[in-house]
């Protein structure tokens, strides 16, 4: 049945779309976090300022996740996963699974 299988190219497109949905959600969440951080900073209320520590950590983690998602997308397009051989039934490795499958992915180093 022709419509039941997704070609390698289709899997790349699906991974691309899913990653961008995740990125957009994280960026929307970051906008909310930044607004709250700014309000807390302007209020100068000690409890609000203390809360900013946790909010900034969450913001930082979200940024890391966005970077990882973009690195995953980059690996999709720089690997041979979208070659004709992969399109004929090969699988597309994404995210941390790409690393486990032997695909190289550069990660930035993080200072905490």
TrEMBL record:
<dbReference type="GO" id="GO:0048511">
    <property type="term" value="P:rhythmic process"/>
</dbReference>
<keyword id="KW-0539">Nucleus</keyword>
<feature type="compositionally biased region" description="Basic residues">
    <location>
        <begin position="102"/>
        <end position="112"/>
    </location>
</feature>
<dbReference type="InterPro" id="IPR040462">
    <property type="entry name" value="EARLY_FLOWERING_4"/>
</dbReference>
<feature type="region of interest" description="Disordered">
    <location>
        <begin position="79"/>
        <end position="112"/>
    </location>
</feature>
<dbReference type="GO" id="GO:0009649">
    <property type="term" value="P:entrainment of circadian clock"/>
</dbReference>
<dbReference type="InterPro" id="IPR009741">
    <property type="entry name" value="EARLY_FLOWERING_4_dom"/>
</dbReference>
<dbReference type="GO" id="GO:0005634">
    <property type="term" value="C:nucleus"/>
</dbReference>
<comment type="similarity">
    <text>Belongs to the EARLY FLOWERING 4 family.</text>
</comment>
<keyword id="KW-0090">Biological rhythms</keyword>
<dbReference type="Pfam" id="PF07011">
    <property type="entry name" value="Elf4"/>
</dbReference>
<dbReference type="GO" id="GO:0042753">
    <property type="term" value="P:positive regulation of circadian rhythm"/>
</dbReference>
<protein>
    <recommendedName>
        <fullName>Protein EARLY FLOWERING 4 domain-containing protein</fullName>
    </recommendedName>
</protein>
<feature type="domain" description="Protein EARLY FLOWERING 4">
    <location>
        <begin position="9"/>
        <end position="83"/>
    </location>
</feature>
């Amino acid at each position: 049945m022709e419509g039941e299988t997704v070609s390698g190219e289709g899997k790349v497109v699906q991974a691309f779309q899913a990653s961008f949905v995740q990125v957009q959600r994280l960026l929307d969440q970051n906008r909310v976090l930044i607004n709250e951080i700014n309000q807390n900073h302007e209020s100068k209320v000690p409890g609000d300022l203390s809360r900013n520590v946790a909010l900034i950590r969450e913001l930082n983690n979200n940024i890391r996740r966005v970077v990882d998602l973009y690195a995953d997308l980059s690996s999709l397009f720089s690997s041979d996963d979208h070659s004709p051989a992969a399109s004929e039934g090969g699988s597309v490795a994404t995210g941390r699974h790409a690393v486990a499958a032997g695909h190289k992915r550069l990660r930035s180093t993080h200072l905490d």
